Amino acid sequence: MLTSLYVEGRSWFHRVPVRAKLVALLLASIALFATDSPLPLLAAFLLAGGLYLSLGLTLRQAFARVGFVFFTILVLAAVNLFLIPLPQVLALALRLTALVLLAAAVTATTTIGAFMDEVTVLLKPFERLGLVRAADVSLALGLVLRFVPDIFARYQAISEAHRARGLPVRPLTIIGPLIILTLKDADTIAAAIDARGFRRQ
Amino acid sequence: MDIRFTDCSVSFGERVALHPVTLALDERRIGIIGLNGSGKTTFARLINGLVKPSTGHVKVNGLDTVADGRAVLAEAGFIFQNPQHQLIMPIVADDIAFGLKNRGLPVHEISSRTEAVLARFGVSHLARRRVHELSGGETQLVAMASVVVTGPKILILDEPTNQLDLRNRRMVADTIEALEEDTIVITHDLGLVEGVERLLLFHEGRLIADGKPDETVRCYHEVAGC
């Protein structure tokens, strides 16, 4: 999650403008899908890994951030070994890991605020066409990142309340109260957004 | 401050949350007390237009809360009962900057005002912290900073020491006392309203006492039966 992935630092990649990073990520994503040959994909993987490791993270920290996704890619590759030839499996795994490393490098060097500002700017042309309100999309993104930990904490609190009362903890019995409590809070949060002058300009 | 309620009432469907009230508030420090559900928060929310009056009108520094809603929001900042709900950006500095961005201020001014307000509230060290990781006292201070940064003349604080331990309560109370802005504090914490110039008591949606703190608190004890 972006909230927890930003790393304070002064690396060269921290200094690259957010827009340039996002455009580079987009272009790299397209380029990685333009070839099925493992060799260029291996080069891309090594370059992305080098970039990611140059950001000032320790190896342990660096792996902790992407380890789960790498594990998922590994499982995916293992399953594909039974379906497609080895070079193609290699290409698939290298492509996805390179992409994850590039995305991790961008999120590690971009603050939420900078990311949201950039999203707002990038969506401005669509706003002029009347398709979206750029500030709304940016705010929605910020709200998701802000309140996901709260919703998770509330899920745990409801689970504990179930256990304390000797009730079995089942996702289905927790989801109901979780949704009701979240919607109740949503009213207050909407009032707070109003009170903070959103769309005042 | 110059707040005028004229025959103002609030109803939610059949339920009357606030019976008609007419009064003027012009002191710098005002407190509001009352039992749960007495109408004190509804009364306070009328001041910055978060609640619209069902009858009558409210004027804040000459601005009507319905007709001049946006301007009133700039005059009167509201700090919510649960400050966690008020902080809407994931990172402290981004949240402080949120209100300034909404005003379309230039980036350098947003940055300097954010730094200044964090320093004023003694929370500069929290600038890059995640909002959901703050302690109760820190959350309350950041919530206050996030409102003060936009420069309201009046601050309305809804139960600001609710759920705080003794140390954090003292810290928040001292901060409120030192505020340059005019304040209206809604609270169950009678220690917090000891020094106010005027204290209002609400009961069952009615303003039943309005005067010096000791007189109003005496009346509150009678109403509460203890």
TrEMBL record, chain A:
<protein>
    <submittedName>
        <fullName>Transporter</fullName>
    </submittedName>
</protein>
<feature type="transmembrane region" description="Helical">
    <location>
        <begin position="92"/>
        <end position="116"/>
    </location>
</feature>
<feature type="transmembrane region" description="Helical">
    <location>
        <begin position="66"/>
        <end position="86"/>
    </location>
</feature>
<dbReference type="InterPro" id="IPR003339">
    <property type="entry name" value="ABC/ECF_trnsptr_transmembrane"/>
</dbReference>
<keyword id="KW-1133">Transmembrane helix</keyword>
<dbReference type="Pfam" id="PF02361">
    <property type="entry name" value="CbiQ"/>
</dbReference>
<dbReference type="GO" id="GO:0005886">
    <property type="term" value="C:plasma membrane"/>
</dbReference>
<keyword id="KW-0472">Membrane</keyword>
<comment type="similarity">
    <text>Belongs to the CbiQ family.</text>
</comment>
<keyword id="KW-0812">Transmembrane</keyword>
From TrEMBL, chain B:
<keyword id="KW-0547">Nucleotide-binding</keyword>
<dbReference type="Pfam" id="PF00005">
    <property type="entry name" value="ABC_tran"/>
</dbReference>
<dbReference type="InterPro" id="IPR027417">
    <property type="entry name" value="P-loop_NTPase"/>
</dbReference>
<keyword id="KW-0067">ATP-binding</keyword>
<keyword id="KW-0813">Transport</keyword>
<dbReference type="InterPro" id="IPR015856">
    <property type="entry name" value="ABC_transpr_CbiO/EcfA_su"/>
</dbReference>
<dbReference type="GO" id="GO:0005524">
    <property type="term" value="F:ATP binding"/>
</dbReference>
<feature type="domain" description="ABC transporter">
    <location>
        <begin position="3"/>
        <end position="226"/>
    </location>
</feature>
<protein>
    <submittedName>
        <fullName>Cobalt ABC transporter ATP-binding protein</fullName>
    </submittedName>
</protein>
<dbReference type="InterPro" id="IPR003439">
    <property type="entry name" value="ABC_transporter-like_ATP-bd"/>
</dbReference>
<dbReference type="InterPro" id="IPR050095">
    <property type="entry name" value="ECF_ABC_transporter_ATP-bd"/>
</dbReference>
<dbReference type="GO" id="GO:0043190">
    <property type="term" value="C:ATP-binding cassette (ABC) transporter complex"/>
</dbReference>
<dbReference type="GO" id="GO:0042626">
    <property type="term" value="F:ATPase-coupled transmembrane transporter activity"/>
</dbReference>
<comment type="similarity">
    <text>Belongs to the ABC transporter superfamily.</text>
</comment>
<dbReference type="InterPro" id="IPR003593">
    <property type="entry name" value="AAA+_ATPase"/>
</dbReference>
<dbReference type="GO" id="GO:0016887">
    <property type="term" value="F:ATP hydrolysis activity"/>
</dbReference>
